[in-house]
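Students often ask why we bother encoding 3D structure as a string. The short answer is that it lets us treat folding as translation between two languages. Here is a chain of 185 residues written in the first language.
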Amino acid sequence: DLPGLAGVLPANGWAWLRPAPGGVLATLGRFGALALRTVLLTPTGLAVPLGDTPAVTPLRDGGFLAASVDGRRTSMVVRTAEGTSAARWTAPGAATPVGDTVAGTLVRVAATEGQAGADLLLVDPRTGSVRRRLGTDRIPLGASPTAVAHLAGGCFRNCQLAVTDVRTGRWREYPTPDQGPPRTA
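And here it is in the second language, the structure alphabet:
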């Protein structure tokens, strides 16, 4: 039993749980409904609202970056662990925060026409200013504090897994087993 979950889980609902600094991120929804929201469940049972979106990633400083796509742009809001807004900016297109690194927050910006993958950018999480472009037409698989793993967007067999050092921008490629199209976690 997770403290606070019973108080926020909607009737006929489900929760996607992820560990986060200060508690557990819970993205909540109802079967048959499109509306989603994300809260931070603290050890004391408090449910801190972080946004009406599943696109929330923890930041290294204890805050959270939440993205809400609205047509041709994405509103990004940095929230504190208490749920208050600490910063806000807008990204063009559909953007999703993937993870926070020592060199900035990894943001996936939706593919342009003809691309299967996306642009991968390291941004300042408080302003949105681009610190480094990691690649174009890439599929992000995950981010650690110092590296990002990604694949080519058009890869379907015999893919090369790329791991980029976020401080230098250099990457190495590794062969992957030939098991069909790649999938993100």
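Translate back mentally: The radius of gyration is 17 Å. Keep this in mind for the problem set.
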